Each structure stands twice: as structure tokens, then as C-alpha cells.
Structure prediction request, 470 residues.
Amino acid sequence: MVESSPRSFATKDAYDVVIVGAGALGLASAYHLVQSRSDLSIVVLDARSGPGEGSTGASNGMVRDVFSSWDNHILAKSSIAFYRHLMEEHEELRAPSPLLDLFGYLWLLPESRRQEYESLVSQSEGSIDAQPVSLEKLRSCPGLDVTPARWYEDDGVHAPEPISSGLFGRNCGAVAPERLVRFYYEQAKRSGVEFRFDSVVQRLSFEGREEILLHEPSKLPFAFQKEMKGRLRISGVKLGDGRSVRADHVIVAAGAWAEKLLHPLGIATACSPRPQTLFSVSGRVVEELLRWEPPVNPVDTDDGRARFPFLILPTGALLKPIFRDRQMWVGYEDSVAHPIGTREDPGKDGRLDFSMVAMGDREAFATDVLPAVTPYLPGFGTSGVRLENSWGGYYHFSPDGLPVLIEEPYGVIFVGGDSGSGVMKADSIGRLVAAKYEGKAEARLFSGESYRIDRLSLDHRAVQEERIIL
Ligand SMILES: Cc1cc2nc3c(=O)[nH]c(=O)nc-3n(C[C@H](O)[C@H](O)[C@H](O)COP(=O)(O)OP(=O)(O)OC[C@H]3O[C@@H](n4cnc5c(N)ncnc54)[C@H](O)[C@@H]3O)c2cc1C
Prediction:
């Protein structure tokens, strides 16, 4: 995605901090850590050949601050404000295409969910900027069937719920993940953070700093050593090719693969990865939808004209407009069709053969996606829509849909659990990781709000379950 510097291993072999993972979360963490502690020596290690080539590169790149949990709302809202601020500060993030384009999200809601969404907005007391859209106005959407008769051809029994109204989220739209990645990567590098790509971390190492007892040959600690205050420390990481990098602290931001490094140490993250796929489509039906001028009032317009928003159907199917390519990206949050887990195991194999393209399960377009789209947009079942491409990555689900940030007393920090919305919260999460490293109880977000970091821990977790996962 971003050009990486040639592999150089002639640099140091000991650092204050090793960050495993150069995805959105690892990069934002590196950036904010070096901003607050320029005295630290930091290296980011990633198995891929450049930054942002894990799930971040597969992402839909959508941002929203409409969440049911207050924590997700303010973490995303502050990050979106920061991304907007970056555009104001850096001309290259405004053109040729903007880093952030707030064209809006439009939820098409059945009666059973309308009240829930409306009360979410009213309870936020103005913090969530969203407006109801009447059924009458929605009827102007070309080809939209608001009262579908059946899920798919052979199912004569069940009908999906009719649409009763819409909700338009204004502080919502698209961010370009590759440009965000480039910003964090280049800025962190400029500030002295080192990056090493093609470097697979196979395991975290404990070594007896003060000659404590260790299991041999695996160099794992004995259970009782956890009680020996200050004695048990992480000492670094071992790479798949046999090399080692020493470090006082290791921050694991390895996304879907984090558990492969942490479970062998007995560190539970409560998170689990699941594959997710996106499909790009084009054709006459797509073109007609892209020409729709919805009756809404977005933050960003095309010369004062509202554009096709990110559309969420009652079935959960998602349609993202790609105006430049006259395409749509279509997806569906999958929590049943694919098994939990990753296909790759860097902890065992010492390599990470992740491929976005190989994860693009093309057949799922017909079996999983079309039945969720065609009831409301029957044109998708015709030759007016052509499947162009498919790719995939992982959502790293936490049990409640909020990020997880934990620290072990021996120098390991884990951040993850993006639950499909990590890019839109990356900036806030990076600030929390930096503050956590510094031993602070609170972090200051870009919005100016103070956020108590242990709200996202597992021991003192204090968050409400997120109900809007897309
Ligand atoms: C199809 C899809 C659509 C999505 N849509 C959105 C969206 O619209 N908006 C949004 O906000 N989020 C979205 N997400 C989620 C978003 O992509 C994630 O929240 C985000 O990318 C998580 O960033 P990360 O840094 O934790 O993980 P990653 O980007 O996966 O980064 C982890 C990095 O760690 C590296 N790594 C892992 N293990 C090792 C190891 N042992 N040694 C060395 N390196 C290692 C990997 O190579 C990788 O680069 C989507 C995800 C998918 C898959």
C-alpha cells in the first residue's frame, strides 16, 4: 500500500519499545507514543512488506460516530475530528481526493428498530448528529422496494421487514485508510520510529533479567514468577527467521493474529477474529443509484448536492458508493457463515501468508450477499449489476464490540478488539496506548475529552455493549 524502505537490519537490536503490527492501531500508537515521548527508541515490526497491509488494507474505510455505546461514540467522534483537522493542516490530504469525505450514512429501518435508533439520537443530547428521513422521501431512491415480499426466489414463507423510515447520520462517511496509514507511518518515521517489514514475530520472549528461573528451552516463566515483583520482565521478541529484537516493552497491535502471540503466554484478550469479505460491483443499476440525490443534508457535498450515502439495509447489507470508479462496494457483517479464527498462525509457522485477494470468497456474493440485498433492491438480481472484484480481511471481535486495551505487569501491552470499526477509532486508540505506556490513568482525546483508560481493560471494564456493528 505504502512504499516501504528497503529492509535494513544493520540497525539496533535493543529498543525501549517494540510494537508488533503496522496496521491502523499499531501506527497510531507509534505516532502518539513518539509525540509524547521523543526520548524513546521505538521499532515497529510487521510481517508484511509495508504498512497497512493487514486488515487495515482490506477495510471498507467508513467512519461514523453513530454507536449505541457512549465509549465507541466518543472514541470515533474524536478520531473523525482529528482526521478532519489533518486535512485542514495538510494540503496533500485534501487533494486530489480528500482523506475524509462525510457524505453520510443512511440506515433504512424497519419499525422494530426505528424507536431504538431514534432514542439513541435523542439520549445523546445533540452529540450524535443524525436526522430522521420519512418513508415518503426514501421512495425517491431508484429501484428501492420498501415492502419486499420474500428473502429470495425459493423462500415463499418469510418476508423481510418493510422499511418504515430512515435515519441519516451526518458525522459519517469515508476515510481513505491508505492515506491515513501513510500519514501515521511517515510522521512516526520522521520523528525517529524505526520500521522493519518482512519481519514476522514468532513469539514474545521472557528472559531472566535478574537470573530468574525459566523453563528451557522455550524460555517461558514458571507460574510463581508472576508474584516476584519487578523480576519477571519481557525481554523482547523472537522472529520467524531466528533473529531476536530486545525490548523493555512490547506492544502487541497484531490485529486478528494477536492471540497467536499472546495465548502461549497465558494472556487472554477475550477477542476472536472472523473473516469478512467485500465485493465491488458496477453496471446500470449501480449507475442509477449513484445518480440519486438523496433528500438529506450531509456535511460534505458535491457542489451543494447530496450524494448517494453509505446505505444500510434492514438485513444488515451495506452499500458504499465509490463515485470516482462508478462502483459500489457491497458487504455484510458476517458472524455466522465463516468459522472463528485465522487461517494463518505466525506463532507456529513463523510466517504470515495473509492475502486479501485469497480471502475474497467470490462465491459468497451469490450465496450470502445477494439474498440480503435483492429483497430491497431487486435490480441487484439482474444483469444490471456486475460483480467486479472481491477481497477480505478479519474483524477482531471483542465480546461487547468495544476495543480492548490491557497491560501485563511484565511489560506487555495488548490493543485490539476493533470489532470492525478500528480505522474510525484508530486515532483515539493510539492516544490511549501512548498514555497507558506512560502509566497514566486517563488519556486526553483530540476532542479535548479525558478518557479513563481502564474502561477498556478486562479487569475493570466499564462499557455498554455495542449494538450497532456493521
Ligand atoms: C472487510 C473489512 C471491512 C472493514 N470496514 C471497516 C470500516 O469501514 N471502518 C473501520 O473503521 N474499520 C473497518 N474494518 C476494520 C478495520 O479494518 C480494523 O479495525 C483495523 O484494520 C484494525 O487495525 P489493526 O491495526 O488492529 O489490524 P491490522 O491492520 O490487521 O494490522 C495488524 C498488523 O499486524 C501484523 N502482524 C500480525 N501478526 C504479526 C506477527 N506475528 N509478526 C509481525 N507482524 C504481525 C500484520 O501483518 C498486520 O499488518 C474492516 C475490516 C474488514 C476486514
Observations:
- Residues 1-10 have pLDDT under 50 and may be disordered.
- The chain has eleven helices and 21 strands.
- Residues 70-89 form the longest helix (20 residues).
- The domain at 100-172+273-343+355-395 is CATH 3.30.9.10 (D-Amino Acid Oxidase; Chain A, domain 2).
